[in-house]
Known about the structure:
The protein is mainly alpha-helical. Helices cover 63% and strands 0% of the residues.
Amino acid sequence: MKTGIETMEGAWKRLSRPVKLSFFAALGTGLIVYLFILTNRMFCAGDALNNVVYDGNLTWMGRWSCKLLSSLGTDLAMPLVNGMLMILFLSMAAAVMVSLLEIRSDLLAVLAAGVVMCHPSAGATMKYLPYADGFILAALLATLALWLTDRYVWGFLPGAVLLCLSMGTYQAYLALIVSLMLVRGVSLLAGGQLDDRALLLRMLRYGLLLALGVGAYFGVTRLLEAFGVKLSDYQSVSSMGQFTLEELWRNFVGCYGDFRRNIMMLSSRPGYYVTGYTNYFLFAAGLGCMWLLTLCGGFGKGRSPWLRLALLAALTVLSPVFYCCIRLANPGALHSLMVYSTVGMHLMVIAGLQLVCDRMGSRPASDKAGES
């Protein structure tokens, strides 16, 4: 019988080189980028000026699992401890994303790691340092939930549990998982790896993951309310999921405005956003690349051109909604911390470049076995 260490060694050896590389690249990047905040006490958010002890209990905000996920860190506002845990969890999340999107190029894996680690929303999480480790662990759980769903037929069941726990710490990570679904779904359409039946079944699993995970989160939240937990009106938490069809439509349209504003965000400091027209180019380049790949080889036996083009057109039009779908939850305001999902826009470009490399025949032979 294998020991725990032997089991972990075996799991590590089964990881592909790009996945390992992305982890270490993200870890190194995080240590460099966030070195200052790791070694200095920052008074940035909330009641940080008045308290140095945080118990992680945010149940009143519908974040009933925050205390649990923050328990690996310290209750004290210690940047080095909480910050290092945050960087570690985000590095793991970057590795999971590289595996999910089947990035096989070492260079693209490192690029993906840098994008995930340096996104402005990740930096904004540092403003809430006492909870940063728990918040980013929640992001890791959301990413793992989609990875399980994508890899295994019944993976949406454990995935729903992970998504429920993730939302129980920070509800906005629902948008992160939806964003990654968009990138993965468009990649599968453009790559042509699955026939139509397998593709639709994969999308069905994604839908079941969202339905079960979100349903479980609201179920636990309403149960806590029944036991006397009063939810705050902060960010309309007390009225989550309670809105009219008119409000739903207004929020749906609002997703496009949120996307336009947030892809311009190249700085995590409110009011000091640098003009981000580069992001418009990246948004168009990512989807444009996927369209070209689909038109130039995404069809074949069992792959209906009309179905795939219709799906790709729908995903293209709705992509801003996927990236900023947290607006549908009717929050009072949208902060930089809540739009980490826009990282998917950059990952779309990287996933497209990987497919281009595959089409050009530069995929390593050792990777054709399907390592992840």
